Amino acid sequence: MKKTFFLVLLALVAGVALAIQLTRDPGYILIAYGNHTFETSLFALLVAVILLVVLFKLLVSLLRWLNPMRWFRSGDSGRL
Fold this sequence. Notes:
The chain crosses the membrane at residues 43-63. By secondary structure, the protein is α+β, with helices and mostly antiparallel strands.
């Protein structure tokens, strides 16, 4: 319980510190690869990364729940 409370408190403090810093200077990210460039603010990049991680975790959870490997068991003769 104490460990969870500490982690939540630490995340809250880090979030507030990041929010204060981003209001002062939103940051600027420029990624260039060959003839392609990607420009964004630091905040937008953080939000995009967090959303991608959450979507990936949801997809993995869905695949674990569905368990597609059970459909390919040998000896089932095509039955589900």
